[in-house]
Amino acid sequence: MAKTHTAVALDPLGGGDAAAMAAMALAAVDADLAAGRPFVIYSTAEPAEVAAVQARLGRERAATLLEETFAALAQALVGRGVRRLVVAGGETSGAVVQALNVEALAIGPQIDPGVPWTTSMGTPRLALALKSGNFGANDFFLKSLAMLSP
Length: 150
Fold this sequence. Notes:
Blueprint: E1 6-9, H1 18-28, H2 30-35, E2 39-42, H3 47-57, H4 59-79, E3 84-88, H5 90-99, E4 105-112, E5 115-120, E6 127-131, H6 140-148
Helix pairs in contact: 1-4, 3-4, 4-5
């Protein structure tokens, strides 16, 4: 997806807290948000980079910082009217669902084996694709968004 859409990498060593990291990422995708274009905000990195972050922040703090950032991003995006989110990573998905106060999900069509679209049962109604790191093909993000495109 990063080859064809705006892609913003989170930098846990950038010196900010979760709110600051979320604000920086949102500023980077502002034009896409305004135009209704999909984008990706990610924290994936090469193993050496992950090890450097964990060495500096500690493994638990690094994970918590990224989860808090994605939770803040989800809240801000929904606050701006976004109604479909694709979230990768089991812990990240849990943080996003909790931050959005999602209490129940209806299971929808399968995107890839083991990963369906879901719809939140509360207000606002949200389409959520929640994927563990071990599921989904290389084109998962594009495929998931194409399934819900008008």
